[in-house]
Design a protein that fits this description.
By secondary structure, the chain is α+β, with helices and mostly antiparallel strands. It is 31% helix and 30% strand. The strands form two sheets. Strands 1, 2, 3, 4, 5, 6, 10 and 11 form an eight-stranded mixed sheet that branches. It has a three-stranded antiparallel sheet with strand order 7-8-9, sandwiched between helices.
Length: 252
């Protein structure tokens, strides 16, 4: 594991600790070197039911226990985030009934090299709300109250949540979380009708500038195929895929 991967995975574990709470029964579980988010309110969505581990032996030692935890919570779909170089974990998960569901790209950027905000970049909402972030992500990904259930409706810190509006309607968002000098980026989304206006890139420039002002040195994220070109233009570079190995039961 390279220092870049180690830093990104540590930031993932730190962020996942913050996303549970608003929905009934939502919580996280920490086993030996393994962190799991459990969100029974969305039992068929694996993203809110995610596992991040520190080492392959730790994942192997806790996998049966994780299965019991999700079964007892009534969660039918959950996923394990697996770096592309962890062949042993991949084989272990496949043998346990997990299948490769997605392979976002791990990316990192040096904040000193990221472009400063432009005058034309959107002004973020001074009072961003979790409800706006959830709604924008649900609209962007064609989901029905998945992200909204996870985020809840509390007010968010304008230092870490950036919501852009078009004609008064929430249309784009970016959320950041600082950990160990890493301004990690999450929940980047643009509503379908607002795409092509540079909203995500503009909010990202503001968010990364603020992260640098707080003392962060780098930024990490996990990019979809659609988002990769946007992030590369901002100065991010690829580290390799971080695969999502999903275990799913048929819906009742």
């Amino acid at each position: 594991m390279t220092p870049e991967w180690e830093r990104m995975l540590a930031s993932m574990r730190a962020f996942f600790r913050t996303i549970t709470g608003p929905s009934e029964g939502s919580h996280f579980v920490e086993l030996d070197g393994v962190l799991a988010t459990v969100t029974p309110a969305v039992p068929d969505r694996s993203l809110p039911n995610s596992v991040v581990y520190e080492s392959e032996p730790q994942l192997e030692a806790t996998l049966d226990g994780l299965t019991r935890i999700y079964d007892q919570a009534g969660v039918r779909a959950w996923t394990v985030w697996t770096p592309f170089y962890d062949d042993r974990a991949r084989d272990l998960l496949a043998a346990a009934g997990h299948v490769l569901d997605a392979n976002p790209e791990a990316m990192t950027a040096e904040l000193a090299q990221v472009e400063a905000p432009r005058e034309t970049d959107p002004e973020p909402d001074p009072r961003p709300s979790a409800a706006d972030v959830g709604e924008i992500n649900d609209r962007a990904y064609g989901l029905t109250k998945t992200f909204s259930v996870v985020t809840g409706d509390a007010e968010l810190s304008p230092a870490h949540a950036y919501v852009g509006r078009v004609d008064g309607t929430p249309a784009a968002c970016v959320v950041t979380n600082d950990h160990g000098g890493d301004c990690s980026v999450w929940w980047v989304a643009v509503a379908p009708e607002a795409r092509g206006r540079g909203l995500a890139a503009g909010l990202m420039r503001r968010a990364l500038h603020d992260g640098r002002e707080r003392g962060c040195e780098v930024s990490t994220l996990q990019a979809t195929k659609l988002g990769q070109p946007v992030y590369e233009r901002l100065g991010y570079r690829r580290l390799g895929a971080i695969e999502m190995w999903e275990r799913r039961k048929p819906a009742a």
